[in-house]
Amino acid sequence: MAKSSTRFDDGVADIIGGWAVSRPELDVAAMEVFGRLHRSYLLYRAEINAGFESFGINEAGFDVLACLRRAEPDYRRTAGELAKQTLVTTGGLTLRVNRLEAAGLVLRERDEHDARVVYVSLTGDGKELVDEVADAHFAILDRLLQGVSARDRKQLAELLYRLEGSLRASGDPELVDGVESA
Question: Which domain, by its residues, includes 41?
Fold first, then answer.
């Protein structure tokens, strides 16, 4: 992919310029990273949410379905595994699973040896839907990166990995522990 030569109105540069005038002694260089990261995230979220909505699903529902789809070979996980891998509380997961079950996309089953263990599994309709949504979702992600070369994508991924490591190393341990690695 070729680099995009399209320039856009850079609100972050405007913010940095404003600080340079009003507080020239203030080092706002980190805003170049975090301001652009935040704006990019907002654009990304708007695009992916529109994609999910076109299938009548939301990001939370897709998250559960995708987690189950990756659970080869039986497309089944315990409720606890789902809660951990989707980064929600078990109560939040219950609401998601209730909606997906009502739509006929997942089934709940109690373990035959331990009734405290609940499994959630994809139905045939759930597998079909998650595959369709995943195809569209990854096509959207690829489209969003069309202006970034393959080499730059790899470098950006490495830089973001390092950024996450820096954030984890410098952050409040209680906050960092609450954010699971994806």
Answer: 11-53
